[in-house]
Specification:
By secondary structure, the protein is mostly helical. The protein has three helices and no strands. α1 runs antiparallel to α2. The longest helix has 26 residues.
């Protein structure tokens, strides 16, 4: 059962790569990258279960936090053009 789940996760990762390459907008590509991160966490959990190594779950949790922070940083960069944007300062548009 877990082998079938692993193959399904790999197929979903392939579809996310296609979306990242073909995505018409930047936000489609960011969403595909975030989906790849989530699928990588699922893949780590499945492989960790299949090999009997529960420490893969710790690696998956760490990767999930990095995925969240990275996605927020990329979206902030695309919105403001700078990662050091301070909403308290007034900028001209």
């Amino acid at each position: 059962m877990f082998v079938a789940a692993t193959l399904a996760i790999l197929a979903a990762m392939a579809l996310a790569v296609v979306r990242a390459i073909k995505g018409p907008t930047v936000f489609d590509r960011v969403l595909a990258g975030n989906s790849m991160g989530s699928l990588a966490i699922l893949l780590l959990a499945a492989v960790g279960f299949l090999t009997g190594r529960p420490e893969f779950l710790d690696i998956g949790l760490t990767y999930g936090l990095l995925n969240l922070i990275g996605t927020l940083a990329v979206l902030r960069f695309f919105r403001h053009g700078d990662l050091a944007y301070d909403p308290g300062t007034k900028r001209r548009r």
